[in-house]
Amino acid sequence: MRISVIGCGYLGAVHASAMAELGHDVVGIDVDAAKIAQLAIGKPPFFEPGLPEVLTSAMNNGRLRFSTDIADAAGSQVHFIAVGTPQKPGGYSADLRYVDASIESLLPHLSDGDLVVGKSTVPVGTAARLAELIEAGSGASLAWNPEFLREGFAVQDTISPDRLVYGVAPGSRGEHATELLNEIYATALAADTPLVITDYATAELVKVAANAFLATKISFINAMAEIAEVTGADVTQLADAIGYDGRIGRRFLGAGVGFGGGCLPKDIRAFTARAEELGRGESVAFLKEIDKINLRRRQRVVDLTVGALGASVYNAKVAVLGLSFKPHSDDVRDSPALDVAVQLRGLGADVVATDPQAIDNSRARHPQLQYSQSLEDTLQGADAVVLVTEWPEFRHLDPVWAGSLVKTKTVIDGRNALDPAAWRAAGWTYHGLGRP
Ligand code: UDX
After folding, report:
1. Which residues does the Swiss-Prot or TrEMBL record annotate as the active site (predicted)?
2. HSE on the CB side for 135, CA within 13 Å?
């Protein structure tokens, strides 16, 4: 099938490449000429494992090309909208300007029977509004098909999703949309991927509800960590024990410095704002608490570090391990790790931060921090070590080797990623989150 993907950021670039990998004929379109130029030579402008390989192979097979001209969408039967919906500056709601602009620019190039498919995360009610615009301005129709990919596993999550959701119009328009989407996702459907066919509002809500649930799970265990900290309990054992209950499950019960990234934080805030607009603010008021618990955990890591350094935080060397919001990503949007590094620097500490992938993005936002590519240089002479992103190389750090480099053997494990017994045996003072 001929497909256009409008918006070649994180979501769009992965989606375009994955669709081409599945055998479709894809054009990726973006207004950002620099981004398109990079993609066109097979180099994604961000780090995502497996993406360069899929991108290059699809381009070599002639199934994937990129353009800055929206007119190149003409001739495709299905047009995915994969533009960003960031948090509005100074507010909590989602900024829909890129979604609106992409639909407006696409409208003149749509033909009868075309299907526009929204993938961006939007406030509930957006699809119904866009469907009216599309139907009034062309013979095309709209479906909403939310994306659940995780950074670091984005290609795999797109090619083999754990479920598919189609929000479609009632009647024949919806049947036509379902047929086209079934053709696009034939490989996943053949592998028995669960499929939910529903209305626009449900499809939009599935996405925000899923992210709200995940955020709630993380803040729940982080709230338990706060209680563990004043009672001497161990939150990691608590998580294991409650996680064995199949109704609860152990995943997303990792207590630590909290969640970040381009989705969870902004999505729960936008959901709260939308619910308030709908007169149902109280239904999701708990999400404000989820956000507050999450932000308190960053403060906790800063406080533990300052507590360990005592009055000498000013000019003390703090080695910060990790900058991205999670491992296997170079994304520093709303990153707890970067936030902790910036706060410690603000208190006068001499922060040196390292990360396998996220130094360039961090430097662009916070040039006042010192960065090092070398773990050894980062640790050398440190008065405290703060682990804030659990990259495998930090998780498996040898406490004896690290101890031979630092000045003071104090470690603050902001991800509960280290083995306290091994670190203490090597002479370290170990501080975890929610662990004695
Ligand atoms: C998330 C959703 O998982 C995905 O389905 C959606 O499409 C986009 O948002 P992503 O932002 O890539 O994906 O990251 P995810 O793996 O969900 O992690 C989010 C944050 O939660 C990270 O900062 C991570 O470190 C943190 N986290 C995760 C925890 O603090 N504890 C956990 O147990 C799990």
Report:
1. 263
2. 12
